[in-house]
Amino acid sequence: MVLLKILTKVRAISGVDQVLPISEFHKYMSSVLKNGAALSVDVDALMDAVVYEPDLRSIHQMLYNGGLTHQPLNDKIDQLRWRKSKHEQDLMRETCRIGSESLNALLREGCEERNESNIVGFLDHQCRRRGADRLAYPPVVAAGNNANTIHYISSNKPIRKTDCVLVDAGCDLHGYVSDITRCFPISGRFSAVQRTLYDVLNDIQSQLLHYVQTVRPLRLNELYKHMVERMADSLSSIVFFRKDLSQKELIKECDRLCPHHVSHYLGMDVHDTPSIAKNIECPPGVIITVEPGIYIRPENTAVRNEFRGIGFRIEDDVLLTETGAEILTANCIRDPEDIELVMDS
Predict the structure, then answer these.
(1) Rounded Cα gap, residues 77 and 42, in angstroms
(2) Is pLDDT above 70 for 64?
(3) Peptide bond preceding 158 in cis form (omega within 30 of 0)
(4) What residues have CB less than 8 Å from 91, skipping those under 6 apart?
(5) Would you list the DSSP string of 222-272?
(6) What confidence score (pLDDT) does residue 110 get?
(7) Where residue 121 falls among pLDDT bands split at 50, 70, 90?
(8) pLDDT tens digit string along 200-225?
């Protein structure tokens, strides 16, 4: 009776037509083998399960040594996960709200912290106290030149009073994650050089968000191309490079300055549905990130000396809709005037 209730509950939650207890697996698979059916299998999940659940090794052996025809299930699952249902969209709104409010709290209350690790702890507390289950991934808290390491997760270095801090963090709410990046001066005031570069990136982000809201069909690779073109124009206007460059040279340099894509799909994982290509049209219901970055390592001699050692990225989460796009992280403070105002309050 208890087992029947469990199976009924699993069927209701999952939407799967037929749910059987694991004790019947071998009997069921034997009948499938006799019928010569082809199965779709989440190979990665099975391999992980075999490591932690020795009882499942016989399942692995049956699939791979029993003459059973099988094909990867991952691509099919990604297709199902790619477009979010209304309920999923509501969950994403909430996880983005919590992530945004937690980063805003950091600007208001957490900037007395003088070590990257303290900010990690502060963000974890802020996300959980607002209802999140946990942080979505090991956050990047990178002060000064550390921000030029794209996936810097050491987050344990002292913060100097002249540093800008890059924070890439998100929260996990019932299996759905936010992914937000903001940069701010730990002193509460950007230096003139920091402000000049931040203004450029912030303007690029505004242009990219407008592009996402208005351009159809929307393809992520085209969005990246648009970012590089806007970056080339903007950096030329502030005499960023040490010498004049042709448009082709500018594009090449800007491609180096932002060595990651400007966007990825988001949902139940940070880099969600990885089998979905970035050169195809994105339909309504898809959630993406928009995250331009400019990273100038100290040894980059193509750039004027005063800009070297600065790394900035701004990242927002966006739901594509029938009429445009909804910026799910719009309430996360981004404009430099607002950053300084909040930190000064």
Answers:
(1) 9
(2) no
(3) no
(4) 173, 174, 176
(5) HHHHHHHHHHHHHHHHTT-BSS---HHHHHHHHHHHS-S-S--B-SSSSS-
(6) 78
(7) very high
(8) 999 999 999 999 999 999 999 999 99
For residue 1, pLDDT over 80 is answered with no
pLDDT reading at 4 higher than 90: no
Task: Let me know whether 162 and 41 are in one domain.
Answer: no
Q: Please return the burial class of 238, using the count of CB atoms within 10 Å of its CB with bins 0-12, 13-18 and 19+.
A: middle
Q: Domains in the chain: how many in total?
A: 2
Residues 18 and 158 in one domain: no
Say whether pTM exceeds 0.85: yes
The pair of three-digit structure tokens given for residue 298, joined into one six-digit string: 């100290």
120 vs 69, residue with greater confidence: 120
The residue with greater pLDDT, 159 or 28, is 159
Which structure tokens are listed for 132?
Answer: 């999140």
Query: Is 77 domain-assigned?
Result: no
- Sign of the Cα torsion 154, 158, 163, 165 reads positive
Helix pair angle (86-109, 336-344), 10° resolution: 60
| In-domain check, residue 182 | yes
Indicate the DSSP class of residue 280.
S
| C-beta of residue 157 within 8 angstroms of C-beta of residue 294 | no
Whether the CA torsion 246, 248, 252, 254 is positive or negative: it is positive
Among 106, 293, 107, 331, residue whose Cα is nearest residue 198: 293
Structure tokens at 176: 């759905």
Which one-letter amino acid corresponds to residue 122?
F
Amino acid (1-letter code) at residue 277: A
* 234 shares its domain with 116: yes
Supply the pLDDT for residue 271.
Answer: 98
Regarding whether 43 and 169 lie in a shared domain, the answer is no
